[in-house]
User: Fold this.
Amino acid sequence: MAIKDNTNWNQLNREIHQKMTLEYNRKAVAYLQQLGERLVKYAREDKSAARHYTDRTGNLRNSIGYVVVQGGQIVKSLFNGNTTDTERNKKGDGNTIGLAYATKIAMELPTNKTYLVWVAGMEYASYVEANGYDVITGSGDWLESRVEIEREKFKRYLLSK
Assistant:
């Protein structure tokens, strides 16, 4: 008597691939969220005297934040601060403007990958940097100097449980 094999191998392979993709996507978001938080912290707090700018309203510093984009959708974000002076913030606070700018950039990205977008959303951020002050360039330089290290950390993170 022969035993019938009713296993649909193609279906099984599709299900395994789907579960692996979901796990990869989950871990990619978690890792980029952690990296985004480190970049934002660096950009907001690491201001030596030579690079420090005076942020009178708090808008510029509060406009620094990130979004993680996956499949064309923002799945995580960090824009926080406590700017409340409405007289100074008639055009909106830094948080709102930063998130709107990051969202605009995120929606221009291809939808087949996961991205980290970190920005300084105030329109005058580039002017401040052009005058020799660090708004977010320093955090970008820090990440660029660590690309290989971060890539290896991400690979290890993907293999972890």
Observations:
- The longest strand covers residues 64-70.
- The chain has six helices and three strands.
